[in-house]
Recover the amino acids of this structure.
């Protein structure tokens, strides 16, 4: 397609081309050997005049213009891509071409009213992202949509262990005031007796106590301890149970004497500061019929049979206990809940005596 002479174009005129801002072409372009000429100081306007834009062009000059047109087309593509890239930067204004090695550097400011965005620095390359050069605003890092959570403490709570500090051995009663949870045991019989403790699931084991006749020993218990205790007299088939729960509801101490498992010792439990008494010190074996007596392998009676076995009650045994144990004095059957007593005192006094 033929190009109209520049002299007839409303865009270019000799007066516009002879502006002080026109710069010499700094780099020769292949296929345009006569554009530079012999004088390196020629302006672009002088160059256009020397090429005879007012007269028909020779094939050699036409080839040079085709090269210029091709270069302008490539530049337009680069400018379009750059404008698209920079459009996200808030429409930052462009500047004139500034690369010194660009073959079109002489056009800077030559076209009045035509502003071309700057494509980068001195090398005319792709603009730097986040650059520090003037006129090329950098892309700021995208804001975090999620703040980094602080590290959670890596320490995992240590599993609670049921093993507490070694329990102190039972101490003789008397001396200073008691602290913590205690039971003070007194052997009111005429023969030695051993008291065995059975903790509820998860509570600490307590060593057995052996009491001489008339001896009194005080045993400490961990906070919240619950379980039962009994005399080891007999073959273990029948036994009177003392039951206790320290630091129960409202920090109360709950206690009772139970005859459900039988009777092999007289037993009472009472708070040391005073309160209701559970159990009886009466000799229940002495007046019991032979049919309900608990006996060793040698046939000697040491106590009274169980009232309930696997939820099956023995009517003869239940009737006998009812005659000697009050409804709130001790458990005869599992539903005797009125026999569970409570106190704010954490120190209990226990009296025992074997029946044989």
């Amino acid at each position: 397609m033929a190009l109209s002479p520049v002299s007839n174009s409303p865009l270019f005129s000799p007066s516009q081309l002879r502006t002080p801002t026109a710069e010499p072409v700094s780099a020769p372009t292949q296929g345009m050997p006569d554009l530079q000429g012999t004088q390196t100081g020629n302006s672009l306007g002088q160059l256009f005049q020397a090429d005879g834009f007012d007269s028909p062009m020779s094939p050699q000059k036409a080839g040079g213009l085709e090269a210029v047109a091709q270069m302008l087309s490539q530049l337009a593509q680069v400018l379009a891509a750059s404008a698209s890239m920079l459009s996200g930067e808030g429409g930052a204004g462009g500047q004139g071409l500034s690369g010194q090695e660009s073959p079109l550097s002489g056009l800077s400011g030559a076209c009045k009213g035509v502003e071309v965005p700057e494509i980068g620095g001195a090398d005319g390359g792709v603009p730097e992202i986040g650059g520090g050069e003037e006129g090329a605003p950098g892309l700021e890092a995208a804001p975090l949509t999620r703040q980094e959570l602080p590290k959670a403490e890596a320490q995992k709570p240590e599993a609670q262990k049921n093993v507490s500090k070694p329990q102190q051995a039972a101490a003789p009663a008397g001396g200073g005031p008691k602290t913590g949870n205690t039971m003070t045991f007194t052997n009111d019989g005429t023969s030695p007796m051993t008291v065995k403790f059975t903790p509820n699931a998860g509570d600490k084991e307590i060593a057995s106590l052996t009491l001489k006749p008339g001896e009194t020993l005080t045993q400490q218990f961990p906070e919240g301890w619950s379980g039962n205790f009994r005399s080891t007299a007999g073959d273990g088939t029948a036994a009177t149970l003392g039951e206790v729960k320290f630091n129960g509801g409202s920090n109360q101490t709950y206690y009772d004497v139970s005859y459900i498992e039988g009777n092999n010792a007289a037993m009472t439990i009472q708070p040391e500061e005073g309160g209701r008494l559970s159990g009886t010190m009466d000799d229940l074996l002495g007046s019991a019929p032979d049919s309900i007596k608990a006996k060793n392998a040698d046939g000697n009676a040491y106590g009274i049979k169980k009232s309930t076995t696997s939820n099956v009650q023995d009517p003869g045994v239940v009737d006998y206990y009812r005659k000697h144990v009050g409804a709130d004095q001790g458990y005869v059957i599992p539903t005797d809940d009125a026999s569970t007593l409570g106190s704010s005192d954490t120190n209990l006094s226990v009296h025992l005596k074997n029946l044989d």
Residues 59-86 form the longest helix (28 residues). The chain has two domains: 10-85+102-107, 171-354.
